[in-house]
Write a structure and sequence with these properties.
The structure is a single chain. The chain has one domain. The protein contains no helices and 7 strands. The protein is mainly β and about 160 residues long.
Length: about 160
């Protein structure tokens, strides 16, 4: 059985200068029953997400790019930053006993900045970075860091 409130609370504000801020709070719980050994496994998750988004048309660069006549960008440039913090806690209990014991859990930190540039109505460029840091609460699992980064070029062939 799974229940999820994502987001349970959330607020997003956009100003007239195309600056957006968001804050979200989410909770979830998952229950698994094993009929072999009559154990109930419960995983509780709590997540906070904050985000920043800024869009600017005609941004003047402090340098000149090759192939450009001036240092002013003609189209939209969007800068995004999302930060997320999640705590997961897993506990097991037997159906015939009232005590539960912790068996696992982790803390996850996600950092996702990105820069989007609309070159024209057919080409969109995106420079992105995505890092996930997982710190387990138990000593039998090792901490992990997964990092992805790159440049994404989207070309639309439709008219």
């Amino acid at each position: 059985m799974q229940e999820q409130f994502a987001p349970l609370l959330g607020i997003e504000v956009t100003t007239t200068k195309q600056l957006s801020l968001k804050l979200e709070y989410a909770k979830s719980r998952q229950l698994s029953l094993s009929l072999i050994d009559y154990q109930l496994s419960e995983t509780n998750s709590t997540q906070w997400t904050t985000g920043f988004n800024w869009r600017k048309r005609g941004l003047r660069l402090p340098f000149k790019l090759p192939g450009m006549k001036n240092s002013k960008l003609q189209n939209d440039l969007t800068i995004k930053l999302d930060l997320s913090f999640r705590n997961d806690a897993t506990s097991n209990s037997r159906i015939d006993q009232s005590t539960a014991y912790g068996t696992g859990g982790q803390q996850v930190v996600i950092i996702q900045p990105a820069i989007d540039y609309v070159y024209n109505n057919r080409i969109n460029l995106r420079l992105f970075f995505d890092q996930r840091r997982v710190t387990p609460y138990i000593s039998t699992a090792a901490p992990t860091i997964v990092t992805r980064a790159g440049i994404l070029v989207r070309v639309s062939l439709a008219q």
